[in-house]
Each structure stands twice: as C-alpha cells, then as structure tokens.
Amino acid sequence: MDKKQADKKREFARFISKSEPGPGDGGRTGSWRVARPVIDLEKCIPAKKGRPACFKCWAFCPDGVVTKTVPPEIDYEYCKGCGICASECPVCAITMMAETDFAKKKAG
Amino acid sequence: MHIIDSGNTAAANGVKLARAEVIAAYPITPQTPLTEKLSEFVDGGEMDAQYIPVESEHSALAVCIAASSAGARAFTATSANGLLYMSEQVHWAAGARLPIVMCVVNRGIGAPWTVWNDHQDAISQRDSGWIQIYCCDHQQIIDTVIQAFKLAETVSIPVMVCYDGYILSHTYMPFEIPDKGRVDAFLPRISPEYRLDPENPVNLNTVTLPDIRLDIHGKTAPGYMEIRHNLHTDLRSSISVVEEIDAGFKKNFGRGGNPLIEPYRCDDAEFVAICLGSLSYQLRLAVDKLRNDGIPVGVAGIRLYRPFPDQAVREAFSSKKRLIVIEKALSYGNQGALCGDIRAALYAATGSRPDISNYIIGIGGREIQTNMLVDLLEKACTGTEKPGTEAEWIGLRM
Ligand code: SF4
Ligand code: SF4
Questions:
Q1: Structural domains in chain B?
Q2: Who has the most CB within 10 Å: B86, B193, B228, B286?
Q3: Which of B203, B205, B214, B241 to substitute to test the interface with A, most A CBs within 10 Å?
Q4: Cβ atoms of residues B214 and A32 within 8 Å
C-alpha cells in the first residue's frame, strides 16, 4: 500500500462497529435475565481440585462475564442468562435458576 | 488483447484481472454465464481463488461478508429475485463497511415472473448504502469491475456494478482485456480497514446501542447512529474518489473520463435525455437523427447512481430548457426513481431550472425500438405544453 493510499484510507470508515469481548459491551445485559446460572462448587472441577482447570464456562460465555479463577465467578450485572455455560459445563455444575425463585429464596 | 465476447465474459475477465480471492455465487438468469465463467477460471487454475458454491444468494453474500471480514478480496454476482433474496445481507455488507464487489445483471422482478431486462432489481436496493455504478457497454463492464475493487477498498464501502441483462450480458461485442501487469500496478492490495485475526479477537457489528457508550476500556464507542452517519458521509465523499480512480485509470489505460455522468452532444443542447445503463447508447442514435433535423438535443447516461452526483447534475443540467428522464424502473406509486433524484437535485439549483418530463419504458423486457425513442424525444423537445407531473409509460399496448 503506497503512502497516499494509506492516507486516503484513513479518512474512511472512521466509525465501525468493532469492540472487544467483555462485560458491558452489549449494555446492561443483566436486566435481560429471566434465569441465572448458579455454580455448584461441590461439582465444579477447578473448585474441587483447588487449581485452575476446565473453565469451559469462561471460554463459552458470549459476554465474557465468567472469571477464569478458582472458583469461577459470574458477574450478574452483565450475565444475560443465556444458559450457554450451563449446557457447556462437562459435569453439570451449573443450573439455571429462575429469577423469580431466586428472589423468593432471597426474601426467605 | 481485444476479443469479441459477451458482457458476462467481460465481467468475468475483470474479476480475474482483479485477482478476487473468494467468489461465492448462485446462478440466476441472466447472470449465470458470468459465474460459470468464473468457476471455469478457478477450476482450470487460471485464477487463484476459492469458488464457493452455495445454495442461495443470501448465503452467497454471507460467504462474501465472512471472506471480506477475514481480509479476502470477495466477489459475487446476481440478478433480480436473487438480489432481493440476498437483500438482508446487502444492507449488512454496507453497514459492516466491507469492500465487496457485486455485479448486478439487471432483470425485472416478479411477480409476475420475468427473466427479461429492466432496472427494478438494482433500484430496489439503491438505499442499502452500496455504491451503484451502471455500465453502457462491454468495455465499461470490464473496466468498471477493475475500478470497483479499488473504489470499494479505498472507501470501505461495497460496490454494485450494474449492467443490462441480455442487452449487454448475452450480446457479443469487441472489448479490450487490459494487460495483467498494468492492472496489478493499478490495483494493489489495500489492507482492509479491519480483518478477523485470531490473535486479537474482536466483536464485529454486535448489538449496538442507540447511544454512545464506554467500551470495556472506558473509551467512548460510537452508537448505531454515529456508525450509520459515517457510512452516509463516506458515501458522499466517495463521489470525488470515483473521479480520482477514473482519472488514474484513464492515465494507465486510456479509457474513461466521465465517471459520474456520460454526456453525448450535450454541450449546446437545450434538451437532454437522461437515463441509466445501455439505453443511453441507444438514445444516441435517436439524438443523431433529431440533430439532423435541427433539434438541439443530447443524451446523458448517469453512471454513478449512488452516491448520487447531485452537484454534477446541477452543473450539467440546470441551464437546460427541458430534461427528459427515461427509466426502466420506478418508485411504485410515485415516479421514476431517477427522475425523483434529478428533480430533488435541481430543486436546490439557484437561478433557472429546466422543465422535467418522465417516461417509463422497457419494463420486463418490453422492446425499445429506436424509432420509439425518436418519437418520444421529438414530442418532448417540440411540445409547447409544460410537462405534467405524472410519469408517462411508453410502449403500453393495451
Ligand atoms: S464449566 Fe463447569 S466445571 Fe468447568 S469451570 Fe465452569 S462450572 Fe466449573
Ligand atoms: S448464562 Fe452463563 S454463558 Fe450466559 S451470559 Fe450468563 S454466565 Fe455467560
């Protein structure tokens, strides 16, 4: 690419929809959730082993809201409740709990 | 090298010279011989490209979108209902700012089913955000295809190269295939604005909020409206890029010079016929005939239809007495689409404005005989009445 073309190029497509995957990229997606993923630490592989392992939930979460930590944690501010983590977890450690049930449970 | 061959072959040779890397297309009349030719080129090792056969036009453009997002030079072609079937992806490709080139071999759209030529297919997509260029002969087809890749990659906007089904796609005429080495020099690979890169994963064109927002690094990211406004302003800025690329092409290959509007005997004309596509060359015959009778008439083919060269339209036509806009498509329930654009452009003219009459012709392949054009122009040029506001249909038989 010659210099002139490079200069010309830069004047165009100043705004495109490009972003990095991460919490909040799609807005406050936590408000979309009707069911929340809850991790059972008795079953979760890294939690059980006490060292980094598996992390399929982290890898598959489309909103990047699961941490790659021991144990993995979910940011419910942005978790949209899609359930992908629950269906990807190899040991079924994640269950999708209806938000209404969660609210009732919280209220005692 | 000069050859005598079809418009579709001219287009295929343009794509080959442009070194398209990914071709995905679904055959549809009258585009089919173009994609067959390209698959022959790829199969015979004449082109180093991936030819991806797909099950529909929607998938054809989806493949091009993916390929272009990955940084490959991508090409597709279609006609009529095929273009309509890919319409969702047509808009997507523009919004995603992908430099895809597509030939639209113009054909009427169903219902009722037709395979013959008019311009309704491309006109129906004029507001999609693509650049639209119309060709008048085979030489323009091959030259425009080559320039279209340069244009698309310079402005990051996809380009439709439109040419008349059958009238150009299937007829044979002589044209020059430009020299390969000179095309390579004219059309170097421009690195795309962005490309998919596994080392640096990004989200492209995900749900984009109405308002601007902070991205995950706390930097302000544009909202949907900023991104769309940028597409529009870049389209407007593309008009001068079209002119620059044409000038560069002319310098290298000796052809071109009228990339926005192609005039014929317009300088001293009081009356000018305006149209899209090959019809403008047929109208030259009618113009010559009427000139012999002393009528000061010319014809201008609009080559760049989107972005609309409204400034050039004002400069070329605001001092004329009458414009005769003849179209093979219309905005149903209103008027010819081109006529509406010409009227809007001239409304902004300061000082005088010509009368404008609008004619619809050749819909669904209804034959356009040159003597019909002579009659039409003669009446429009010599009539004393002001033209009405309604488009008049020429050639109706019932
Ligand atoms: S996928 Fe399941 S087992 Fe693996 S880290 Fe996530 S919750 Fe634990
Ligand atoms: S449900 Fe699981 S995969 Fe879906 S957003 Fe929430 S954490 Fe991510």
A1: 2-186 (3.40.50.970), 261-393 (3.40.50.920)
A2: B86
A3: B203
A4: no
